[in-house]
Amino acid sequence: xxxxxxxxxxxxxxxxxxxxxxxxxxxxxxxxxxxxxxxxxxxxxxxxxxxxxxxxxxxxxxxxxxxxxxxxxxxxxxxxxxxxxxxxxxxxxxxxxxxxxxxxxxxxxxxxxxxxxxxxxxxxxxxxxxxxxxxx
Length: 136
Description:
The structure is a single chain. Helix content is 28%, strand content 24%. The protein has helices spanning 19-36, 63-73, 106-114, and strands spanning 4-9, 48-56, 85-94, 122-129. A 4-stranded mixed β-sheet has the order 1-4-2-3, with helices on both faces. The longest helix has 18 residues, at 19-36. The mean pLDDT is 89.
């Protein structure tokens, strides 16, 4: 499995949101992931690491509350089940401040370039294989 990276536009939904809102958000996450995958991609059955970075303008959310809906949305889209997620890295960054990008993935750089004049909330997600014999 190669690393899958994608951007989801908008403000992420918290685990505390209504069922309807969570379903809509999960659909947005799944659609963004599917847009980066080939039609014949196979679901990953091995352990994975998920990286989530929430870039926000004015809606700062509790980071821990936005992780689960994103990870759940990728069930049967990228991996078989979220029990395969053995590492999670999550962060949030304020777009109204100064960002220093060091080794940022191309998807983030592209998105920030597109919205430089009118920044809008978005979430970067990466799913990559991980060797469960190592901790990083």
